[in-house]
Amino acid sequence: MNIRDAAAGDLAAFTRIYGHHVRNGLGTFEEVPPDQSEMAARLAAVRDRGFPWLTAQAEDGAVTGYAYASSFRTRSAYRFVVEDSVYVAPERQGQGVGRTLLTELIVRCEALGMRQMIAIIGDSGNAGSIALHASLGFGHVGRAPSLGWKHGRWVDMVWMQRPLGPGDAESPTET
User: Fold this and answer.
1) In 58-173, at which residue ranges do the beta strands (DSSP E only) sit?
2) How far is residue 45 CA from its own chain's centroid?
3) What percentage of the chain has pLDDT greater than the value 70?
4) Can you tell me the distance from the alpha carbon of 63 to that of 92, in angstroms, rounded to the nearest whole number?
5) In angstroms, what is the C-alpha Rg of the chain?
6) What is the pLDDT of residues 74-116, one digit of tens each?
7) For the stretch 46-63, what's the b/e string if a residue is b when 16 or more beta carbons lie within 10 angstroms of its beta carbon?
8) Where do the H-state alpha helices sit in the chain?
9) Do the beta carbons of residue 67 and residue 101 sit within 8 Å?
10) 88 burial class (0-12, 13-18, 19+ CB within 10 angstroms)?
């Protein structure tokens, strides 16, 4: 598996992968899959902020997943905090794609001087995502019960957090 920066040619695969999760899962609270032009706008917005958007590519060239970091919140005090998003093609889940993507995303965000990474996970029953994040050093911060209504039921939100680099042990460097 190759992890690389996302390219415009990946957008169709991103749209397909994310669309599957929107239609069939609870990991995102989005209910209508975005089209490819919307995914292109999202990719551009992440890059415009200077954050990484990564693609996992199999040896046969197929895009098997993607991950990106985005601003956690827009207020300036949050400028050293990012939120991660990781999506894996359904046929590739459980094969280490998510772990490889998130590991590289952490490395890239540390290199940017970020100090905390937040994971907002839809569905407290999302054992795969919760276990993935816990295995990479994320701790449980909280759970918001019944925060979203999707697929005919209430869905919890799980909040996990991981320090990046020295975390809060020292002051960050302003750029």
Assistant:
1) 63-71, 81-88, 116-122, 139-150, 153-163
2) 14
3) 99
4) 10
5) 16
6) 999 999 999 999 999 999 999 999 999 999 999 999 999 999 9
7) beeeebbbbbbbeeeeeb
8) 11-24, 36-48, 97-111, 127-135
9) yes
10) buried
pLDDT of residue 173: 84
| pTM metric for this prediction | 0.96
Amino acid sitting at position 164: L
Write out the chain's pLDDT in tens, 175 residues: 999 999 999 999 999 999 999 999 999 999 999 999 999 999 999 999 999 999 999 999 999 999 999 999 999 999 999 999 999 999 999 999 999 999 999 999 999 999 999 999 999 999 999 999 999 999 999 999 999 999 999 999 999 999 999 999 999 987 6
The tokens for 165 are: 């680099």
Q: What is the distance between the alpha carbons of residues 4 and 104, in angstroms, rounded to a whole number?
A: 9
Q: Helix crossing, 97-111 with 127-135: angle to 10°?
A: 50
List Cα–Cα distances, 52 to 6, 67, 116, in angstroms.
Answer: 8, 8, 15
Query: Which residue type does 166 have?
Result: P
Q: Could you tell me the two tokens for 131?
A: 């276990």
Maximum CA extent, the chain: 46
End-to-end, the C-alpha distance of the chain in Å comes to 34
The answer to whether the beta carbons of residues 51 and 68 sit under 8 Å apart is: yes
